[in-house]
Amino acid sequence: MLELRDIGKSYEGNPLLENVSLQIGEGETVCLLGPSGSGKSTLLRIAAGLESPDRGEVFWNGEPITRMPAHLRGFGLMFQDYALFPHLDVGENVAFGLRMKKLPRDRIHHEVREALARVNLAHYEHRRVAELSGGEQQRVALARALAPRPGLLMLDEPLGALDRALREELIEEIRRVLKSMRTPSLYVTHDQEEAFAMAARVAILHGGRIVQMGSPEELVTRPASVWVAKFLGLGNILPGRVRSGRTLWIETSLGEFPADGPERLPAIGTEGWILLRPGGGAFTRRTTGAQKGIRGVVRESIRRKEGYRILLVDDSSWEIACSSAEPFPEGEQLVWIPAKGTWLVE
Amino acid sequence: MERDDAAVGRMEIGPAPREFFSGGRALLWILPVAFVGIFFYIPLVSILRMGAGAALRAGLGAFSARTILNAAGFTFYQAALSTLFTVIVGLPGAYVFARFEFPLKRLLRAFLIVPFILPTVVVAAGFESLLGPSGWINLALQAAGLIHQPIPFLHSLGAILLAHVFYNTSIVLRIVGSAWERLDPNLPAAARVLGASRWQAFRRVTLPLLVPSLLAAAALVFLFDFTSFGVILILGGPGFSTLETEIYIQALQAFNLPAASLLSIIQIASTLALVVISTRLAQRAESATLKVGYQTARKPVSAAEKLSLAAVLCLLGALFFMPLISPVASSFLRTEAARGERTAVQTGFTLDYYRELFINRREAAFFATPIESARNSLLVAVATTIIALGLGIPASMLLSRPGRLDRLIEPFLLLPLGTSAVTLGLGMLVALSRPPLDLIRSPLLLPVAHSLIALPFVVRGLKPALAGIPARLREAAATLGASPFRVWQAVDFPIASRAVFSAAAFAFAVSLGEFGATTIIVRPDFPTMPVAIYRFLSQPGGLNYGQAMAMATLLMLLCAVAVTTIERTRE
Fold it and tell me: pTM of the entire structure?
């Protein structure tokens, strides 16, 4: 089990990571999600032993390993740009970690073959790295990291350079392999879909701190802050004020809407934000009368893989995004009744 | 309505100067080709004829095959040893420059090229003033009472090796350093996570990836050490002979031109082979797959890093600064022996040696005051620059967008690059001292020789500058209505003029410091500064020594001005 405790790191006076704590148990995949430059890769390098933290400790199965050099930790690291050794062929790349362990030659052959078969690259031993496609290189990198059977696998945005279709295929593959080997993993990415697909627990990194940690379900239904909701692209976020105390009704410039809130409902008059998700709402063309919805003009209907995204502009020029199964013509007057929203603070 | 494609084709997008010169392309080649033909190829043929004739007729006089073998053998031996040490010294330097950021880094990097551009005589004077019997090290040791007689550091293999390392380390630093900089640091990091210690990661990952650039650098260094002349002649002394120095000795001291010619043939063949090898290796190094665009240099973090950085910089500094500062210091220090004393005595600061340069003491050695050699050098340098540019600019323009004819001519023009300066001078001596080409007494011969040496560099420098102007810029200008001439004026000229200025400064610096060819064809009454320095160094006595140092300092100054001009215009 890996534990990072209160890790802090600064670069030339600027704090990069502050009080970051994380635990990864047996067979678990934890994802570190955050925008580019938020210190995710640095945290990974600290865990791998390639860098030392300014503050905090790293523990492995209860033992402190903060000062232990990288080559003694027995971890695996998959790099964003694969970092395959260009002067060695595929087999030699995969065998590298095994050679460092000084395993006998036939054992190495056997492990290499198994590692390549695991990632569906059987018989690739003698291919040159430069000849491989992006997806193949990525799988070789995975095989190389896993061949020495590390106690922990770290993945640094491994799918960043690949196109969408390839990414989805490889996500599945990596998940399958990790599950079969039961290796605990720390997966770092800025892509939220990847994070949710890979991990049971996701930690969101912002400003060098973990601002929320939980299952994908928890993150989506109960984002901890406006920033998290925006980062996850959860929907429309409007400033508003609490109007009713017993069930939560939020008053905004576009109308009043019901919302989910915390156990202890905030007092009437509290300023905050409400999240109105695009999905689950209803549309009506009856634009007159007291409608508890948002009235506006359709600016655009954008085709999605499933359904349409409707951009609605109301009188005060707010642009609202809503999901619909059918498109609406541009310029049409519409009222959108959103599903129950979520109350947010900060 | 369809676009008129014919009209689009007629619009003059594309290589403008080619159209500009379309009629006179072949005409433009006449001058450069005639120049190189008369002053390089005719002499070359003469050497080949004389040397081959001598070998066949065995008319070599006192000269024997054994001398040839010894000279060739030693040439290879000292070049190999020098290359080895240069690489050993250069590697830590390359690492430090590739991996670390430190104050004055850019300045230091520019400074480390200086030895490479220095005239050999200045380097020789520098080491003479550092390691010679009246040099600083001996003086310091004597002053400290550790020795009573000066230690003969000079005239040894060690002195030659040291000077070569001083000269060529910058090549290793540049070539290997830039390759190391572009090496993805994630590669050794991946190795370390996979269980390799730092040393294993270096040995198994970093080093194999650096080998192409290492080989390219080593080949280039070997080439320069192989054709080294001034260092062997002055710092090695009479006991050491390479092919180059042997050519010189046979030509000017033994008056055995056939023997010199034979040696030249061997020299040319070897050098050509080395040039081909090193070019191949350089191309391989270029195409080696290394990551580009990584900003890998960072400030040193741990105490170990800071210490190793400081140690490497100190060593490099000592190696590079001392041979440059010591002749300057020596020129201001009186080192004459008092009457009756055997060893030199220091008596403090003096400007006497500089004053001496303006006095003609003995009618025999110089027919003019020593300072006139400075005037001669400058005149020759100016003439060289004019000739080299006058031939090099049209050649570069033609070669920047070459047609078939141009591609054929190019190697013809660049061959002098692979020929040593001594051979160049010998060729002129052999071929141009008889009618109809009795030019050996002409004062223009020196600039001609220097231009031959500088021309390939000028062309090499200008060609990429002219070719590298993206066609898009010209196309853009053309679509905005510029005629081919205006395009050239507005786009090519500003970009090219910088390169021209830089090439001019380079030709000037090359001419100032040229020694090998100059010693062979120079007229005794028209010495240049390097020749004057050599004469002073080879004569005994504190006065000569001091004047050598003073003149070397002057030459260093002039070269420094030229070099900073080059670096300035590089921006």
Answer: 0.77
